[in-house]
Amino acid sequence: MRWWLISVLHLLRCVRLRSCTKRGRSRLPLWLRELWAYMKLLVWSLYFNSLTDSDVVFDSVFEPVFWTVDYITRWFGLVFVCLVVILTSSILLIAYTILLPMVFHTYSTAWIAWHVCYGHWNLVMIVFHYYKATKTSPGYPPTVKNDIPFVSVCKRCIIPKPARTHHCGICNRCILKMDHHCPWLNNCVGQFNHRYFFSFCVFMTLGCAYCSISGRNLFLDAYNALERFKHLDVEKQGIPVTGMGLLLGILLSGQTKDPTPVPPYTFKDRMIHKSIIYMWVLTSTVAVALGALTIWHAVLIARGETSIEKHINGKETERLAKQGKVYRNPHNHGRLNNWKMFFGVEKTSHWVTRVLLPSVHAPHSDGLTWDLPVKKEMIPV
Ligand SMILES: [Zn+2]
Ligand SMILES: [Zn+2]
User: Fold this and answer.
1) Which residues of the chain have pLDDT under 50?
2) pLDDT of residue 51
3) Are residues 127 and 88 in the same domain?
4) pLDDT at 372
5) Same domain, residue pair 171 and 294
6) How much distance in Å is there from the Cα of 138 to the middle of ligand 1?
7) For residue 153, which ligand has an atom nearest its CA?
8) Which residues crowd ion ligand 2, with CB under 5 Å?
9) Residue 94's pLDDT is what?
10) Spacing, Cα 116 to ligand 2 middle (Å)
11) 194-214 vs 335-343: helix crossing angle, rounded to 10
12) pLDDT of the residue at 309
């Protein structure tokens, strides 16, 4: 009994001492401090784990911003697809209603045959590849248990990721051999539609360059006519023509005034000239911008890497260079072989039937396993 009483007294003394010490450190009442400690523990228990670092905290804080950007991009995808269809249709409308009748009336038979054959082949290739690029699934890794080799686990989908697979925040799923998410297609570019995407870029660039080059003289004539009649209108109103309008008029027509009698300039003439100018400006701009993008993708394909792997391989090259080693892309099979694998060319005739004509053949790999000419430990993940 005596030893029990001594123990209780000792415990009470300890509690009192502890309370005095704490009270010395903080003036807050004990219940408030306990509540504060409980709340801290509660918050920590919600997100803390041994892998938490500043990057995870940064990602968590900015997650609503990422969600918003992804949502807007997803929504704008539909708008961009409509824009591509409307702009392409407007060029076709001008080509069929204005240019083609002009070609039939003024060109020789050989030139007519060239414009009709080339123009329609290019159009078929553009429409076919754009449709296939938007409608073909880029390829997704299996979600059920299987024996495929994987290099990591997606933290968002919680599924194994095969080599070259990456998570797309806009599609909200993992994509096999992901290249990038294209808002102009409203689709991810991956293993099964990469060829359609690249062919679309090539044929759209060719089509725009064809319109721009063959329509250059028509554009100059239309521009001169518009400027000439604009000057006549202004002069009739007694306003002097100065500045950029006069400079362009001199540069393009070579004279400030036209001494020849001027035929009546109807609304239809004005609309035709404006349509030709619109077509030339749009096709020239797209030819330059899309041409640059197409060259960039061609360089990547020749190296056997995707847009994402370009960054990963660059970092890996720097890391190994610091160790005095040289990094080699494990998916690079040589320039010509990379092109053959990309287009699915297995024999010479395939360059025509599978590259220059519409073709729906499957890609070289299933996107899950890859033939590797170099060591496995050098695969970028
Ligand atoms: Zn994922
Ligand atoms: Zn995507």
Assistant:
1) 1-6, 8-9, 11-12, 14-24, 238-259, 376-381
2) 65
3) yes
4) 76
5) yes
6) 14
7) 1
8) 168, 170-171, 181, 188
9) 94
10) 37
11) 100
12) 94
Q: How many A from CA of 132 to the centre of ligand 1? A: 24
Supply the Cα-derived Rg of the chain in whole angstroms: 34
Q: What are the residue numbers of the active site? A: 182
Residue 12 lies in a domain: no
Q: Where are the beta strands (DSSP E) in 134-272?
A: 152-153, 160-161, 166-168, 173-175, 180-182, 187-189
Across 294-313, b (16+ Cβ under 10 Å) vs e yields: beebeebbebbbbebbeebb
Ligand 2: distance of its center to the CA of 306 in Å? 14
Residue 1: HSE in the Cβ half-sphere, 13 Å Cα cutoff: 0
Per-residue model confidence (pLDDT) at position 292: 97
Cβ–Cβ under 8 Å, residues 179 and 308: yes
Structure tokens at 109: 């038979």
**The domain boundary residue, chosen from 247, 265, 283:** 265
Return phi, psi of residue 179, to 5°.
-100, -55
pLDDT value, residue 118: 96
User: Can you give the residue range of the structural domain that contains 277?
Assistant: 63-214+267-378
Do 148 and 178 have their domain in common? yes
Per-residue model confidence as pLDDT tens digits over 303-318 = 999 999 999 999 999 9
Q: Are 355 and 127 in contact (CB under 8 A)?
A: no
Let me know whether 127 and 259 are in one domain. Answer: no
Q: What is the pLDDT of residue 233?
A: 61
Q: 5 CA distance to ligand 1 centroid (A)?
A: 63
Domain count, the chain: 2
CA–CA distance, 127 with 263 (Å, rounded to integer) = 41
